[in-house]
Amino acid sequence: MKLRASHLALAVGSLNLTGMLATLLLANFVEQASDLLSLITFAGFVVACAIVGALIASKRPANPIGWILSAIAFFGVVAAIVLAYIEANPIAAGSPGRLADWVGSFIWALTFAPIISFSDCFRPDGHSVLAGGPCCG
To answer: Of the residues 46, 100, 123, 130, which has the maximum number of CB atoms within 10 A of its CB?
Structure first.
């Protein structure tokens, strides 16, 4: 059986949803009540990107919007997992950093940077300046 792009899109979407659910369950035990509201809000953003991205990418695999939304959701899940890990295992002041601290400092840029690519897709004529052709397939 050949793996089609629509199957891959649905698999990535379900992986993103499962990762976010696992992060919320873990964060329920380590986060303070004030931090939990911001994590739930961020989780809503990630879940929305995962669902819409998986649906668009499975129905129209050539459309980059679905894959961009799936990438935003993936990096959002990684950011939430790293944040929950850092909150659960704090390090003492002055001690050397860890890989999780390093990843946690830049993963947010990978989460929100793909949103910039949407600005190129909303040109009045529908053509992408960066790609030289239609952006939204």
So the answer is: 46
